[in-house]
Amino acid sequence: MGTLIVIIAIIGIITSMSGCVSSPTDDSELGSASGSESGSVSASSTSRASDELVVNVYSHTGEPETGFDPLLGWGCGHVNFEPLIQSTLFKTDDEGGIINDLATGYSASPDGKTWTVNVRDDVKFTDGEKLTAEDVAFTFNTAIGSNSELDMSNLENARAVNDTAVEFNLKEPQSSFIWRLRYVGIVPEHAYKKETYGASPIGSGPYKLVQWDKGQQAIFELNDNYYGQKPYFKKITMLFLDKDTAFAAAKSGNVDIAEIDITHANQSINGYDIISLPSSRAFGVSFPMQNNTGKKSLTGDTIGNNVTADIAVRKALNTGIDRKAILDGVIYGKGDVEYTGVDQRTFGNPEARIKDSKPEEAIKILEDAGWKDTDGDGIREKDGTKAEFKLYYSSSDQTRQALSVAVSEQAKKLGIKINLVGTNWDEIYANQYSSAVLYAYSSIDTFNLYQQYHTKEADDTYRNPGLYSNPFVDGYLETALRTSDQEQAIENWKLAAYDGNTGFGPSADATWLWLVTMDYLYAVDETIDMGTPEKNAGSDILGNIYEWTRTSATDTAQK
């Protein structure tokens, strides 16, 4: 319990504990379980062995409310991450590509509806029982309908062909199914009970859970029987602190790794490196694509906006906004400019991007389309309609607020008035079909691209909030999803963004005003060598824990 004392010692207080995401919404809500604890013990100098690691990685877990059960969200969700305790069929390499883990290979039938995965025969669970294809099939069959984050709605069933081969039968072809195989940790059929597994999980991953002090910490120790490359660190203590408290913990020398808020980007901590790791976390403004004709959603929410439905307005904003200024001014340059929401991914299409920060060109687009300021109030109008609309953002997120303000200020110079509304997500979702929304998109699963831009009804879910509908884009998305050829899938994902004529990207329909992709920021003890972090996986900093070492071979004292 020594580490627990250290936690209480951190500046005397732990202000809140953040919970694991329980909904794969738009990556905007980091669902939390709040609590507080105070202690009178002051921070003191302690020591630990060089092969012991203390981390606070908010994006990796927060704290899983249902425990360390991959069938209830551990390891998946909007920030898919290395589950540590369980093995997965596939992993991600340093470049973001899919490589084998438990799997030794896979094949898909010509119609794309049957996937066969071959599994290693030298793997044991931490209780000594052998892992077989039966466990894999059990895991996925149990996952069907167990948790919305896993989205196994297209999986008919999984069947063990023999001890080392499992067959997945899909209802419809789905090229993106590979990502389901990538992130679901395998559980043992003989030892899985939904009610108790999360608190005492048995897995075959590099670590095993040995202690969970709810609301405070989880302690993992090396699995000596792990079949893969064994990590240098034999013990990981994971703290459950919010980012501000984690920053204070680093300043006190009580953690090796602490995820910190972007607002600390220009600060320094003695003995620590402040590093930023690229991710796929893109922020952008969704535009209602339909005119307001009086239609309502299933729950009676207004559909349509006569300003954003005009492609000239969307094109002008995409062209006139200075993304680099927003990148530097709002997130301190810790990220990159973003044009399509998936610029950083292998299925992103560079041809869909545009040249921005061209206000004169943007103004010409508006003028040519009939948007003129005839009354001199600084706001353009067309056919009696002012170039004015609301932009909703989460009031609990300072970064979203700052991004929204920056967009509003720049739009004003183009003659477009954007009225900002900071509020809760219930109200945001109720207005997403009639107003712009500052959303974030973090998934590296291509299926989410399909959901984001494929035609849908106003079903009051967050996906495709602008109700975008383009039959050509639908065709590309359907082909990409249904093919059994991953290369063909990637090509069609790209064509959906822009095919030289149409697409969802700013070169064509300009369905969103994507702004920036934000890095994840960490305070890292200068004695830690993190190897080569996975490309664009800043949210999964522990994904390459196998490569981590400490540069000092002797016991490292806390500073």
TrEMBL record:
Biased composition (Low complexity): 30-47
Keywords, ordered alphabetically: Signal, Transport
Gene3D superfamilies associated with the record: Dipeptide-binding Protein, Domain 3 (3.10.105.10), Periplasmic binding protein-like II (3.40.190.10)
Pfam families, alphabetized: SBP_bac_5
Species in which this protein is naturally found: Methanosarcina mazei S-6
Keyword Signal among record annotations: yes
UniProt key word Repeat: no
Gene Ontology annotations of biological process type: peptide transport
Region (Disordered): 24-47
Family that this chain belongs to: Belongs to the bacterial solute-binding protein 5 family.
Protein name stated in the entry: Dipeptide-binding ABC transporter, periplasmic substrate-binding component
